[in-house]
Amino acid sequence: MSRSNNQKDKPKILSKKVTITLSDESGYAAAAVLGNFLIFYQNLIYELGEYVSEGKSRQSGSFPENIKKDFKLETTGLRKGSAELDLQILDNQQTIDTLPSIKNLAINKANDIIIKLNNGADDVTDLLDDIEDTLRMKKAVNNIIEFWPDDNSDYTFSMKTEGYDEFKFNGHMKKNISRIQYSLKDVDESGKHQYFGRFIRIIGDQKRIMIDTLQGKRSFLYKDRDQKDLFSHLFQFIAIEENKNIIENFKPDSTFVMNDFITETNLKVIKPIPFELSFEDDVYIMQNDIFDIFSFHKDLKKARIDIEEQIRFLWSEYVSVDEKSLAPSGLVLRDLLLKYVGENYGLQMSKN
Fold first, then answer.
1. Which of 97, 133, 254, 334 is close enough to 318 for a disulfide, judged by CB 3.0 to 4.6 Å?
2. Closest by alpha carbon to 240, among 257, 187, 230?
3. CB atoms < 10 A from the CB of 251, how many?
4. Given this model, what pLDDT does residue 26 score?
5. What percent of the chain stands above pLDDT 90?
6. pLDDT band at 57 (very low <50, low <70, confident <90, very high)
7. Regarding beta strands 155-161 and 73-79, do their DSSP bridges make them parallel or antiparallel, or are they unpaired?
8. Please, are residues 300 and 284 in contact by the beta-carbon 8 Å criterion?
9. CA–CA separation, 102 vs 94, rounded Å?
10. Which region holds residue 281: left if phi is over 0, alpha if psi is between -120 and 50, else beta?
11. Which of 235, 253, 271 delimits the end of a domain?
12. Which stretch of DSSP H or E encloses residue 195?
């Protein structure tokens, strides 16, 4: 018998198994829904496979051929009735006698991220322990949201990864995932992202600091060379630029410039709106002298949300009305609003 035949007869090594179950009340499964899941789950595995293989993040373009080959999922079990199938990665090299740990690592990371999202994670910081690469996380989340069911789905969707408990996808969590997706929208090929907030805690044993940002509390890694200067700004407002969750640049700054809304609205910012921030008696205070508005809250993100609600209220009172009904002072405020805020044609996605 030839050597090639011996190789063909040798059993293929399989990664751990992922079982997907999809059904609706009728007991049937929509082929389009299942197909959609398979497409984007495979892309997720490619993304994480490239990550654990230490591949460089790509802003766009196809996955390398070796990643497609090494992390290609195969259907290794299919049962009738409601769609239930098993997915595994085959090791085509057939040169090792142990389970392909790097393939399992990609599957484990996919499962860990999905479980965190299913349990209510609404901040990208909650996920960066699994992928310390913001650009890679952005692309992983973009794939996950494509197959996630929503509140109105008429089917149930569950997953069981070998070594983990089975769970059902929670449709209520899709809004949280949308918020995380939005928080990553500006991450470019360099992976850099900017945040503004108050430096509230040092996590020394992990070389991290915690910042209460306008998107919520987030932790970031810092470099040894920056430690002394960075720590001198503890409890102050700072602006940072991070790359792969590592702080690259920072500066103290108490002025926040609002460039968009993070809550659901038909309004958009057309000229940046500056706000002065302060922290007194455990309360955040945001103030804008242009519109003569302010908010205060123990949570910085909620203080910002309150500001956005005030702007929407001013718009409804001074712009969405017949200007002939306004007093001279109202006309002045109307003109100011139109200078900084405009209408979106098509409802803006919730981003908080």
1. 334
2. 230
3. 9
4. 60
5. 30
6. low
7. unpaired
8. yes
9. 14
10. left
11. 253
12. strand 192-203
Q: Strand pairing partners for 195?
A: 240
Neighbours of 255 (CB within 10 A): 11
Do 84 and 119 reside in the same domain of the chain? yes
Look up residue 246 and give its two tokens: 């590592």
Which residue in the block uniquely carries the two structure tokens 């609003």? 337
Cβ(144)–Cβ(40) below 8 Å: yes
Domain co-membership, 175 together with 87: yes
- Residue 89 CA to residue 12 CA, distance in Å, equals 10
Q: Which of 29, 101, 109, 31 is nearest to 70 (CA)?
A: 101
pLDDT confidence band for 285 (50 / 70 / 90): very high
Identify the pLDDT of residue 336. Answer: 94
Amino acid letter, 262? I
Q: Which residues contact 52 (CB under 8 A, 6 or more apart)?
A: 102, 105, 106, 109
- Determine the pLDDT at residue 352: 42
Question: What b-and-e string marks burial along 313-339, b requiring 16 or more CB atoms within 10 Å of the CB?
Answer: ebbeebbeeeeeebeeeeeebbeebee
Q: Are residues 176 and 196 in the same domain?
A: no
Q: In the listed set 229, 253, 277, which residue is the last one of a domain according to the structure?
A: 253
Find out whether 81 and 91 touch, Cβ atoms under 8 Å.
no
Q: Is 177 found in the same domain as 209? A: no
Question: Is residue 70 located within the same domain as residue 168?
Answer: yes
